[in-house]
Amino acid sequence: MTDxxxxxVELVGSSPTSIEDAIQNAIARASSSVDNIRWFEVTDTRGxxxxxxxxxxxxxxxxxxxxxx
Length: 69
Known about the structure:
The chain is an alpha+beta fold and 69 residues long.
């Protein structure tokens, strides 16, 4: 088995629809510029309330990707 080394970046994703969409939006956007994303961890969840209704979800995630070489 090969030893893997990972780098971790912190991202904030948002969505008016759901927490899951906020996570997916952050990972999809990061995937366009970061190769070899392997895992994520949700570290914080927040939202915006407008007139007593949830209007926006926001999540902070740590994303791990393998370092080349």
